[in-house]
Amino acid sequence: MTTPKKRLGVKSIETKHMAEREEALRGLKNLDRKTFLKVSAAALSAVAANGLVSPHSFQPVRVAHAETLSGKVQSFRFAYISDSHLYERSLNDRFINALMRAVDDINAMDPQPDFVFYGGDLAQLGQTKEIELGAQILKNLKAPLRMMVGEHDWYFDMGEKWRELFGNPTYSFDHKGLHCVVLNSVVEKDFWTQRRLSPMDRMKTVAGLDNGMQSSFSVGAEQRAWLEADLKSKPNEAPIVVFSHSPLYKLYKPWNFWTDDADQVQAILKRFNSVVVFHGHTHQLLTNRIGNIHFHGFLSTAWPWPYAPQGLPELTIQMGRPDPFNPNDGCGDGSALIHPDGLADKIYNLWNRNPVTMTRAFMTSRGTKDRPPIPLLRSY
Ligand SMILES: [Fe+2]
Ligand SMILES: [Fe+2]
Question: Where does residue 221 rank: exposed (0-12), middle (13-18), buried (19+ CB within 10 A)?
């Protein structure tokens, strides 16, 4: 009887993929910049082995020429990552790889963005290990990082771990003449105390979005008062950018694509000539304009949500239906180019589709100029 020859040095694609995955996950335990480069390259090749590499590399960035105009913003670009929904590494590595891919995308931008904005929902169930893992991966960004909180980061320990690592979720900062405000827009009324829910049941209820037990999101009276005070000294001509996790308008209540006191927040912002709101949470191409306020959604690195069934804002160019066999389709990251008037060209860097840019001209012309091509495939 002949024994099959032992094949030395030839690994199947599957074995190779598993080995690379192991290396990537092992490396996450000790992630300094040098290790990360190795680890993220390993993660990327694991993705490549599955045929998931995007045909579109990150778009070459337009150089943001700094314009020194008195009283105006110096043009600049920031990049964003959002909604990574990390599980602990022992449970799921797909979302970890996706976040590492986004970090790689942004680290490859030349020139580098002025900062990277994280749009919330770093964790899936607000677990310490999930938030720490996210912080570890994001540490490898070359550009400075600004953080925003999402409901998935908050409702296990009411933001304790998140605040310990990232600070106060409500803050403002100035960048090149632009005033930026970051809000915690996922404040919920207490639905848990009377029901005696455990922290995990509270978290899972919020994460479920549509089980009817939880309340709607809001910014709340306290933060609205803070916002008014923060903006008090700003003249009406001062361009303002606001970051919120949920959209600061009312789109679809059953999924909390909604902020309950959006009208009151908009009223505070109404006197300004130029306001742009960037939000996470909706995981899709989503564009809106209400009066002077332009709204842009962020893509998720984890999954795309379907569109709300009751219609969409007029300016939204809908995403095509994602390929269900490709877990990266419909996901991505992106950037925004801020113009001297404070308005933005917003780029959705879809990992498996052509990138889509919603320009300032598209927004100011209410969709008559610079309309991006409509995707050929049906939306979802
Ligand atoms: Fe999310
Ligand atoms: Fe969310």
Answer: exposed
For the chain, the 3-state helix, strand and coil shares in percent, each to the nearest 5, are 30, 15, 55
DSSP-derived 3-state class of residue 229: helix
Instruction: Tell me the average pLDDT across 9-22.
Output: 51
End-to-end CA distance of the chain: 58
Which pair of tokens denotes residue 123? 């964790």
Angle at 279 between CA 336 and CA 156, to 5 degrees: 135
Q: Which helix (H) or strand (E) holds 33?
A: helix 33-49
**Tens-digit pLDDT profile for residues 218-254:** 999 999 999 999 999 999 999 999 999 999 999 998 8
- Enclosing H/E stretch for 20: helix 13-27
What's the token pair of residue 86?
């990390």
Measure 119 CA to ligand 1 centroid, in angstroms: 9
Q: How distant is the alpha carbon of residue 150 from its chain centre?
A: 10
List the structure tokens of 343.
């308005």
pLDDT band, very low/low/confident/very high, at 319 (cuts 50, 70, 90): confident
CA of 225 to the centre of ligand 1 (A): 27
| Residue 144: cis peptide before it, omega within 30 degrees of 0 | no
Say how far apart CA 361 and CA 50 lie, in whole Å.
39
Q: Which-ligand-closest: CA of 298?
A: 1
Distinct helix (H) and strand (E) counts, the chain: 10, 12
The amino acid at 232: K
Residue 2: pLDDT band by 50, 70, 90 thresholds? very low
From the number of C-beta atoms within 10 Å of its C-beta (0-12, 13-18, 19+), residue 169 rates as: buried
* Structure tokens belonging to residue 85: 């929904």
Q: Among all ligands shown, which has an atom nearest to the Cα of 256?
A: 2
Using a cut of 0.90, tell me whether the model's pTM lies above it.
Answer: no
What is residue 349's DSSP assignment?
E
Instruction: Compute, in angstroms, the gap from residue 133 CA to the centroid of ligand 1.
Output: 17
**What one-letter code names the amino acid at 32?**
D
Q: Nearest-CA neighbor of 360 among 373, 348, 346?
A: 346
The per-residue pLDDT for range 181-196, each reduced to its tens digit, is 999 999 999 999 999 9
